[in-house]
Amino acid sequence: MFWRLQKKREQSLGLKIVGHGPSVADRSEKRSASMTKTREASPNAIQQIVERAEAMINGDYELEADDIENAQHQFKINTKDTHRADRKNQTKQKSKQVKKRNDEHVSKKQNKLFHDKVEGVHMDLLHCDSSMISFNFKVLDTMGYLEEICLKKESSICSSAWCRKECHHLMWIFHNLFKFDKEQPIMYQLKFTDQQWKKIIEAFPENVPPPKMTCPSEDEQIYTINKRTSKKDRKCATCKKGLSEGDIQATTEGPYRTIQKSWIKRTFFFCSRFQCMQKLPRNSFICQYKTGMTLLIETPLTEQQQKEMDLKP
Asked: How many C-beta atoms surround the C-beta of residue 83 within 10 A?
Protein backbone atom coordinates (compact mmCIF):
# COMPACT_ATOMS: atom_id res chain seq x y z
CA MET A 1 0.00 0.00 0.00
CA PHE A 2 2.84 2.41 0.90
CA TRP A 3 4.61 1.55 -2.36
CA ARG A 4 1.54 2.49 -4.42
CA LEU A 5 1.17 5.85 -2.64
CA GLN A 6 4.83 6.61 -3.27
CA LYS A 7 4.51 5.85 -6.99
CA LYS A 8 1.48 8.12 -7.28
CA ARG A 9 3.38 10.93 -5.56
CA GLU A 10 6.28 10.52 -8.00
CA GLN A 11 3.88 10.65 -10.96
CA SER A 12 2.28 13.87 -9.69
CA LEU A 13 5.77 15.47 -9.53
CA GLY A 14 6.42 14.62 -13.21
CA LEU A 15 8.94 11.86 -12.54
CA LYS A 16 9.01 8.89 -14.92
CA ILE A 17 8.03 5.53 -13.49
CA VAL A 18 9.47 2.58 -15.37
CA GLY A 19 6.79 0.04 -16.33
CA HIS A 20 3.88 2.08 -14.91
CA GLY A 21 2.80 4.26 -17.88
CA PRO A 22 3.60 7.88 -18.82
CA SER A 23 4.20 10.56 -16.25
CA VAL A 24 2.18 13.77 -15.87
CA ALA A 25 4.81 15.73 -17.80
CA ASP A 26 4.69 13.25 -20.71
CA ARG A 27 0.89 13.47 -20.91
CA SER A 28 0.98 17.28 -20.86
CA GLU A 29 3.58 17.36 -23.63
CA LYS A 30 1.56 14.98 -25.80
CA ARG A 31 -1.62 17.02 -25.29
CA SER A 32 0.08 20.31 -26.28
CA ALA A 33 1.58 18.69 -29.41
CA SER A 34 -1.87 17.43 -30.45
CA MET A 35 -3.42 20.88 -29.99
CA THR A 36 -0.64 22.53 -32.05
CA LYS A 37 -1.21 20.04 -34.88
CA THR A 38 -4.96 20.74 -34.80
CA ARG A 39 -4.44 24.51 -34.99
CA GLU A 40 -2.17 24.12 -38.03
CA ALA A 41 -4.73 21.90 -39.81
CA SER A 42 -7.71 24.22 -39.24
CA PRO A 43 -6.71 27.03 -41.75
CA ASN A 44 -6.05 24.45 -44.45
CA ALA A 45 -9.49 22.87 -43.92
CA ILE A 46 -11.21 26.26 -44.05
CA GLN A 47 -9.40 27.14 -47.29
CA GLN A 48 -10.53 23.89 -48.90
CA ILE A 49 -14.15 24.55 -47.90
CA VAL A 50 -14.04 28.06 -49.40
CA GLU A 51 -12.57 26.78 -52.68
CA ARG A 52 -15.23 24.03 -53.01
CA ALA A 53 -18.01 26.51 -52.24
CA GLU A 54 -16.77 28.93 -54.94
CA ALA A 55 -16.54 26.09 -57.47
CA MET A 56 -20.15 25.05 -56.68
CA ILE A 57 -21.41 28.66 -57.10
CA ASN A 58 -19.53 29.38 -60.35
CA GLY A 59 -20.09 26.02 -62.01
CA ASP A 60 -23.09 23.81 -62.69
CA TYR A 61 -23.10 21.43 -59.77
CA GLU A 62 -25.79 18.80 -59.41
CA LEU A 63 -26.47 17.04 -56.17
CA GLU A 64 -26.78 13.30 -56.35
CA ALA A 65 -29.16 11.15 -54.35
CA ASP A 66 -26.27 9.62 -52.43
CA ASP A 67 -25.09 13.04 -51.28
CA ILE A 68 -28.53 13.89 -49.92
CA GLU A 69 -28.87 10.56 -48.09
CA ASN A 70 -25.40 10.95 -46.60
CA ALA A 71 -26.22 14.46 -45.42
CA GLN A 72 -29.49 13.32 -43.86
CA HIS A 73 -27.75 10.48 -42.10
CA GLN A 74 -24.79 12.62 -40.98
CA PHE A 75 -26.77 15.63 -39.71
CA LYS A 76 -29.95 13.68 -38.72
CA ILE A 77 -32.28 15.64 -41.00
CA ASN A 78 -35.93 14.45 -40.94
CA THR A 79 -35.05 11.73 -38.46
CA LYS A 80 -36.26 11.14 -34.90
CA ASP A 81 -33.64 11.84 -32.27
CA THR A 82 -33.15 9.41 -29.41
CA HIS A 83 -33.56 12.05 -26.68
CA ARG A 84 -36.84 13.44 -27.97
CA ALA A 85 -40.21 12.81 -26.33
CA ASP A 86 -41.54 10.76 -29.26
CA ARG A 87 -39.16 7.94 -28.36
CA LYS A 88 -40.42 8.00 -24.78
CA ASN A 89 -44.01 7.84 -26.00
CA GLN A 90 -43.11 4.96 -28.26
CA THR A 91 -41.60 3.11 -25.28
CA LYS A 92 -44.75 3.75 -23.22
CA GLN A 93 -46.97 2.42 -26.00
CA LYS A 94 -44.87 -0.73 -26.26
CA SER A 95 -45.03 -1.28 -22.49
CA LYS A 96 -48.83 -0.85 -22.57
CA GLN A 97 -49.11 -3.42 -25.33
CA VAL A 98 -46.95 -5.88 -23.40
CA LYS A 99 -48.97 -5.30 -20.23
CA LYS A 100 -52.23 -5.83 -22.10
CA ARG A 101 -50.89 -9.05 -23.54
CA ASN A 102 -49.86 -10.21 -20.07
CA ASP A 103 -53.33 -9.49 -18.65
CA GLU A 104 -54.81 -11.86 -21.18
CA HIS A 105 -52.37 -14.60 -20.28
CA VAL A 106 -52.35 -16.96 -17.29
CA SER A 107 -48.96 -17.05 -15.56
CA LYS A 108 -47.13 -20.13 -14.32
CA LYS A 109 -47.72 -19.02 -10.74
CA GLN A 110 -51.47 -18.90 -11.32
CA ASN A 111 -51.43 -22.32 -12.98
CA LYS A 112 -49.56 -23.73 -9.99
CA LEU A 113 -52.08 -22.14 -7.61
CA PHE A 114 -54.92 -23.76 -9.53
CA HIS A 115 -53.17 -27.14 -9.47
CA ASP A 116 -52.47 -26.97 -5.71
CA LYS A 117 -55.65 -25.33 -4.38
CA VAL A 118 -58.46 -26.05 -6.85
CA GLU A 119 -57.88 -29.01 -9.13
CA GLY A 120 -59.12 -32.20 -7.48
CA VAL A 121 -59.86 -30.39 -4.19
CA HIS A 122 -63.13 -31.23 -2.39
CA MET A 123 -65.26 -28.40 -1.01
CA ASP A 124 -68.96 -28.23 -0.18
CA LEU A 125 -71.12 -25.38 -1.45
CA LEU A 126 -73.62 -24.92 1.38
CA HIS A 127 -75.28 -21.63 0.43
CA CYS A 128 -75.80 -19.64 -2.78
CA ASP A 129 -77.63 -16.34 -3.16
CA SER A 130 -77.49 -14.46 -6.47
CA SER A 131 -78.61 -11.15 -7.94
CA MET A 132 -77.58 -8.85 -10.78
CA ILE A 133 -75.34 -6.93 -8.38
CA SER A 134 -73.63 -9.64 -6.34
CA PHE A 135 -73.32 -13.34 -5.59
CA ASN A 136 -73.04 -14.65 -2.00
CA PHE A 137 -71.69 -18.10 -1.20
CA LYS A 138 -70.90 -20.22 1.86
CA VAL A 139 -68.27 -22.88 1.30
CA LEU A 140 -66.93 -25.52 3.69
CA ASP A 141 -63.37 -25.86 2.46
CA THR A 142 -61.10 -28.88 2.52
CA MET A 143 -59.69 -27.91 5.95
CA GLY A 144 -63.15 -27.83 7.51
CA TYR A 145 -63.53 -24.03 7.80
CA LEU A 146 -66.77 -22.37 6.75
CA GLU A 147 -65.94 -19.35 4.57
CA GLU A 148 -68.27 -16.69 3.18
CA ILE A 149 -67.52 -15.26 -0.27
CA CYS A 150 -69.15 -12.14 -1.73
CA LEU A 151 -68.61 -11.79 -5.48
CA LYS A 152 -69.07 -8.25 -6.84
CA LYS A 153 -67.95 -6.40 -9.95
CA GLU A 154 -66.02 -3.72 -8.03
CA SER A 155 -64.39 -6.04 -5.50
CA SER A 156 -64.79 -9.59 -4.22
CA ILE A 157 -64.40 -10.41 -0.52
CA CYS A 158 -63.65 -13.68 1.27
CA SER A 159 -63.89 -14.21 5.03
CA SER A 160 -60.65 -16.21 5.04
CA ALA A 161 -57.56 -14.34 6.28
CA TRP A 162 -55.49 -16.12 3.60
CA CYS A 163 -57.51 -14.69 0.69
CA ARG A 164 -56.45 -11.05 0.56
CA LYS A 165 -54.77 -11.00 -2.87
CA GLU A 166 -55.82 -14.33 -4.39
CA CYS A 167 -58.87 -16.32 -3.28
CA HIS A 168 -58.73 -20.05 -3.97
CA HIS A 169 -62.30 -20.41 -2.65
CA LEU A 170 -63.54 -18.07 -5.40
CA MET A 171 -61.39 -19.94 -7.94
CA TRP A 172 -63.04 -23.20 -6.85
CA ILE A 173 -66.51 -21.62 -7.30
CA PHE A 174 -65.58 -20.23 -10.72
CA HIS A 175 -64.29 -23.62 -11.85
CA ASN A 176 -66.99 -25.90 -10.37
CA LEU A 177 -70.10 -23.72 -10.50
CA PHE A 178 -69.45 -21.25 -13.36
CA LYS A 179 -67.47 -23.87 -15.33
CA PHE A 180 -64.59 -21.52 -16.17
CA ASP A 181 -61.41 -23.14 -17.48
CA LYS A 182 -58.07 -22.76 -15.72
CA GLU A 183 -56.63 -20.97 -18.77
CA GLN A 184 -59.12 -18.09 -18.44
CA PRO A 185 -57.62 -15.04 -16.63
CA ILE A 186 -61.02 -14.22 -15.08
CA MET A 187 -60.47 -17.22 -12.78
CA TYR A 188 -57.75 -15.38 -10.84
CA GLN A 189 -59.28 -11.88 -10.52
CA LEU A 190 -61.10 -10.12 -7.70
CA LYS A 191 -62.22 -7.08 -9.75
CA PHE A 192 -63.88 -7.21 -13.15
CA THR A 193 -64.62 -5.04 -16.15
CA ASP A 194 -68.13 -4.56 -17.55
CA GLN A 195 -67.50 -7.16 -20.22
CA GLN A 196 -66.12 -9.68 -17.71
CA TRP A 197 -69.04 -9.12 -15.31
CA LYS A 198 -71.47 -9.74 -18.16
CA LYS A 199 -69.63 -12.97 -18.89
CA ILE A 200 -69.92 -14.03 -15.22
CA ILE A 201 -73.69 -13.40 -15.20
CA GLU A 202 -74.15 -15.37 -18.41
CA ALA A 203 -72.06 -18.28 -17.07
CA PHE A 204 -74.05 -18.58 -13.83
CA PRO A 205 -76.19 -21.74 -14.09
CA GLU A 206 -79.97 -21.47 -14.10
CA ASN A 207 -80.34 -24.47 -11.78
CA VAL A 208 -77.78 -24.43 -8.97
CA PRO A 209 -77.31 -27.89 -7.40
CA PRO A 210 -78.99 -27.99 -3.96
CA PRO A 211 -76.59 -28.04 -0.97
CA LYS A 212 -75.84 -31.39 0.59
CA MET A 213 -76.77 -30.06 4.04
CA THR A 214 -78.75 -27.10 5.39
CA CYS A 215 -78.00 -25.14 8.54
CA PRO A 216 -80.62 -25.13 11.31
CA SER A 217 -82.18 -21.76 12.05
CA GLU A 218 -81.50 -19.96 15.34
CA ASP A 219 -84.93 -21.04 16.59
CA GLU A 220 -84.20 -24.68 15.75
CA GLN A 221 -80.68 -24.70 17.23
CA ILE A 222 -81.04 -25.63 20.92
CA TYR A 223 -78.15 -25.62 23.40
CA THR A 224 -78.30 -27.62 26.62
CA ILE A 225 -76.31 -27.24 29.87
CA ASN A 226 -75.91 -30.47 31.87
CA LYS A 227 -73.49 -32.51 33.94
CA ARG A 228 -71.47 -35.09 32.08
CA THR A 229 -72.48 -38.60 33.20
CA SER A 230 -70.53 -40.67 30.67
CA LYS A 231 -67.21 -42.16 31.79
CA LYS A 232 -65.85 -41.67 28.27
CA ASP A 233 -63.90 -38.44 28.04
CA ARG A 234 -64.65 -35.88 25.34
CA LYS A 235 -63.03 -32.66 24.14
CA CYS A 236 -64.55 -29.24 23.68
CA ALA A 237 -65.37 -28.83 19.97
CA THR A 238 -63.59 -25.46 19.80
CA CYS A 239 -60.90 -25.10 22.49
CA LYS A 240 -60.19 -28.87 22.71
CA LYS A 241 -60.21 -28.85 26.52
CA GLY A 242 -60.91 -32.30 28.01
CA LEU A 243 -64.38 -32.98 29.47
CA SER A 244 -64.57 -35.75 32.07
CA GLU A 245 -67.34 -37.35 34.11
CA GLY A 246 -69.00 -34.82 36.45
CA ASP A 247 -67.93 -31.72 34.44
CA ILE A 248 -70.49 -29.10 33.43
CA GLN A 249 -70.83 -29.08 29.65
CA ALA A 250 -72.90 -27.55 26.85
CA THR A 251 -74.27 -29.71 24.03
CA THR A 252 -76.09 -29.21 20.76
CA GLU A 253 -76.84 -31.25 17.63
CA GLY A 254 -76.25 -30.45 13.99
CA PRO A 255 -74.68 -31.45 10.64
CA TYR A 256 -71.08 -32.67 10.64
CA ARG A 257 -68.84 -33.66 7.70
CA THR A 258 -66.81 -36.81 8.34
CA ILE A 259 -63.29 -37.54 7.12
CA GLN A 260 -64.88 -39.55 4.28
CA LYS A 261 -66.60 -36.29 3.14
CA SER A 262 -70.07 -37.60 4.03
CA TRP A 263 -72.57 -35.68 6.19
CA ILE A 264 -74.05 -37.00 9.42
CA LYS A 265 -75.96 -35.60 12.38
CA ARG A 266 -73.91 -35.60 15.58
CA THR A 267 -73.74 -34.10 19.07
CA PHE A 268 -71.20 -31.34 19.73
CA PHE A 269 -69.73 -30.87 23.22
CA PHE A 270 -68.50 -27.50 24.51
CA CYS A 271 -67.14 -25.99 27.65
CA SER A 272 -69.99 -24.13 29.37
CA ARG A 273 -68.52 -20.77 28.38
CA PHE A 274 -69.74 -18.22 25.85
CA GLN A 275 -66.25 -17.93 24.31
CA CYS A 276 -66.39 -21.60 23.25
CA MET A 277 -70.06 -21.78 22.29
CA GLN A 278 -69.88 -18.74 19.98
CA LYS A 279 -67.19 -20.32 17.77
CA LEU A 280 -68.05 -22.65 14.90
CA PRO A 281 -66.43 -26.11 15.16
CA ARG A 282 -64.52 -27.31 12.13
CA ASN A 283 -66.40 -29.46 9.59
CA SER A 284 -69.75 -28.37 11.04
CA PHE A 285 -72.70 -26.35 9.79
CA ILE A 286 -74.53 -25.15 12.90
CA CYS A 287 -75.54 -21.80 14.44
CA GLN A 288 -73.12 -20.51 17.05
CA TYR A 289 -74.73 -19.64 20.37
CA LYS A 290 -75.97 -16.05 20.72
CA THR A 291 -77.80 -14.25 23.50
CA GLY A 292 -81.52 -14.86 23.05
CA MET A 293 -81.21 -18.38 21.62
CA THR A 294 -82.80 -21.34 23.40
CA LEU A 295 -80.64 -22.53 26.32
CA LEU A 296 -81.89 -25.41 28.48
CA ILE A 297 -80.33 -26.04 31.91
CA GLU A 298 -81.09 -29.65 32.84
CA THR A 299 -78.91 -30.01 35.92
CA PRO A 300 -79.23 -28.00 39.17
CA LEU A 301 -76.07 -25.90 39.47
CA THR A 302 -74.32 -24.51 42.51
CA GLU A 303 -73.45 -20.82 42.78
CA GLN A 304 -69.81 -21.63 42.04
CA GLN A 305 -70.78 -23.59 38.90
CA GLN A 306 -73.04 -20.77 37.72
CA LYS A 307 -70.12 -18.32 38.05
CA GLU A 308 -67.84 -20.66 36.15
CA MET A 309 -70.34 -20.96 33.29
CA ASP A 310 -69.76 -17.34 32.20
CA LEU A 311 -72.48 -17.38 29.54
CA LYS A 312 -72.73 -13.60 29.27
CA PRO A 313 -70.88 -12.12 26.25
From this structure: 7
